[in-house]
């Protein structure tokens, strides 16, 4: 059995290599590829994804998995061997249902859709993106059809990003969360508003970049195993534990996106850099879910990066970087300003108290698209209607509305929910951190993140995909995903800022 187990690992390593090669091409497309290279790039990525899928879903892998079930049962439940066979079995049983032709078509359609989206967003032209998004939605509906019967058509898509989670589970969480967040927003609206006008000035882009680099270097981002580049929409990718890359989007007249976006992406990257390197080129050498992934990015961006202790240490440095803009802005004014609660059009710039409403809006629209009750051509109007319903705002154009996010161009329908789940999980983890590192506040004030990163490495990062997300959350916190800690956090933080 050892021989069969090692053979399975060899095949899985080949599959991982093909997937990472495709990821390199995708990274290049979003950073340096010439604008007209999308068609050739689509062919290349389609070929690599088709080869990876065919190798993974081969009869040989199926026979190995079947033969190794008894071997797995003889191993300790939490052993790497047992977990690898379990995770591989789960992924094989999903992927074997998906035809290779679909994989190729989907990969090529996504490559073309990304280029169309970048052009459509830049020119405020939804019609430019429309046929590509229609193709993506058709392909995702077809994908869900491979998994009939299901409780809901959205379930197979959600499961790709959050294994084991059902649409009903998320909707139940969101229903309770929405009521509480709306109540908090109403309370905040009764109080005098804080000012953040100082964030909207001319800020040198290179200085913003350099400050962000300084911060995430202190966080622990390893530049020998990573890099940062520009892209229209920030993202993180990896080609193994020793090559984890992030991108940034810097605005010349608004300080927040560059700084907090850099922190956000570094949270993703720190997770990938912390996965046990012994699991490289294996299904265990990846994050367990996008919700857990987003918990890491949101933890560093918000629980650390938007906290008062963090800025007690870093604000003098930021003032030195931008003296003419910030010299006369005191610490508390700055802290309140970066945490200003006000409904806004752009998700990635939304404050913590309204952010989840952006996610709920997107989930509603995605479900409607999958169910067929909403057609893609009607999406801009539906978006604007939902924005008014959820946030009391109507976008002035589609670039600030339905075209603002990159994810649908890549086919990532089912992904947005993980942002809100990540918010909830991040605070569940944070409450444990505060108990187990009692002086964490003082450490952050000193600009020392060593113990924090060490805790995350030991409790979360190193495990990779060894545990399912709900299993990992319960193992670390004693509870499955729940909105209660997140609401306690919001009510305490904004209760102080707005003197509720």
Task: Give the structure's gist in a few sentences.
The termini are far apart.
Q: What are its keywords?
A:
500 residues; mainly alpha; Neurolysin, domain 3; 2 domains; 3% strand
Order of helices and strands: HHHHHHHHHEEEHHHHHHHHHHHH
Q: What name does CATH use for the topology of the largest domain?
A: Neurolysin, domain 3
The proportion of strand residues reads: under 5%
Say how many strands there are. Answer: 3
Read across the widest sheet, the strand sequence of neighbours is 1-3-2
- Which sheet architecture does the biggest sheet show? 3 strands, mixed
Cα separation of the termini: 64 Å
Mean pLDDT: 95
User: Count of DSSP helices?
Assistant: 21
Please estimate the helix content: 55-70%
Instruction: Catalogue the unreliable spans.
Output: none
Under the CATH scheme, which architecture of the largest domain would be assigned?
A: Orthogonal Bundle
Domains, number:
2
Q: How would you classify the helix and strand content by structural class?
A: mainly alpha
Cα radius of gyration in angstroms = 22 Å
Task: Give the overall form.
Answer: globular
CATH class bucket of the largest domain: Mainly Alpha
């Amino acid at each position: 059995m050892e021989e069969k187990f090692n053979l399975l690992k060899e095949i899985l390593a080949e599959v991982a290599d093909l997937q990472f090669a495709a990821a390199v091409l995708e990274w290049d497309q979003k950073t340096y590829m010439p604008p007209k290279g999308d068609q050739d790039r689509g062919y290349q990525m389609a070929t690599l994804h088709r080869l990876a899928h065919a190798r993974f879903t081969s009869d040989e892998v199926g026979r190995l998995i079947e033969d190794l079930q008894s071997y797995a049962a003889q191993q300790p439940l939490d052993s790497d061997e047992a977990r690898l066979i379990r995770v591989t079995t789960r992924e094989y049983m999903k992927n074997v249902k998906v035809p290779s032709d679909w994989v190729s078509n989907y990969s090529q359609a996504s490559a073309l859709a990304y280029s169309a989206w970048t052009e459509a967003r830049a020119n405020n032209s939804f019609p430019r993106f429309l046929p590509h998004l229609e193709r993506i939605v058709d392909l995702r509906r077809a994908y869900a059809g491979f998994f009939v019967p299901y409780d809901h058509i959205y379930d197979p898509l959600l499961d790709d990003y959050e294994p084991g989670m059902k649409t009903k589970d998320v909707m139940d969480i969101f229903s309770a969360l929405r009521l509480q967040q709306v109540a908090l927003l109403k309370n905040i609206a009764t109080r005098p508003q804080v000012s953040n006008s100082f964030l909207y000035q001319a800020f040198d882009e290179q200085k913003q970049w350099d400050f962000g680099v300084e911060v995430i270097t202190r966080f622990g981002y390893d530049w020998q195993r990573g890099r940062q580049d520009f892209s229209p929409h920030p993202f993180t990718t990896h080609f193994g534990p020793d090559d984890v890359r992030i991108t940034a989007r810097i605005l010349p007249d608004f300080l927040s996106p560059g700084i907090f976006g850099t922190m956000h992406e570094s949270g993703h990257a720190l997770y990938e850099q912390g996965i046990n390197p012994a699991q490289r080129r294996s299904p265990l050498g990846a994050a367990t879910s996008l919700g857990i992934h987003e918990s890491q990015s949101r933890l560093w961006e918000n629980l650390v990066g938007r906290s008062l202790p963090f800025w007690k240490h870093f604000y003098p440095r930021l003032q030195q970087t931008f003296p003419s803009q910030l010299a006369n802005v005191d610490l508390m004014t700055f802290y309140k300003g970066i945490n200003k609660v006000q409904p806004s059009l752009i998700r990635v710039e939304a404050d913590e108290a309204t952010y989840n409403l952006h996610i709920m809006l997107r989930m509603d629209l995605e479900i409607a698209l999958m169910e067929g009750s909403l057609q893609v051509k009607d999406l801009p109007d539906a978006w604007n209607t939902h924005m008014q319903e959820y946030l009391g705002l109507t976008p002035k154009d589609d670039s600030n509305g339905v075209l603002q996010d990159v994810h649908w161009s890549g086919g990532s329908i089912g992904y947005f929910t993980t942002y809100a789940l990540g918010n909830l999980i991040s605070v569940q983890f944070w409450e444990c951190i505060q108990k187990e590192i009692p002086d964490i506040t003082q450490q952050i004030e000193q600009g020392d993140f060593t113990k924090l990163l060490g805790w995350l490495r030991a409790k979360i990062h190193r495990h990779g995909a060894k545990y399912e997300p709900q299993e990992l959350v319960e193992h670390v916190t004693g509870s499955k995903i729940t909105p209660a800690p997140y609401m306690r956090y919001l009510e305490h933080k904004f209760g102080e800022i707005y003197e509720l």
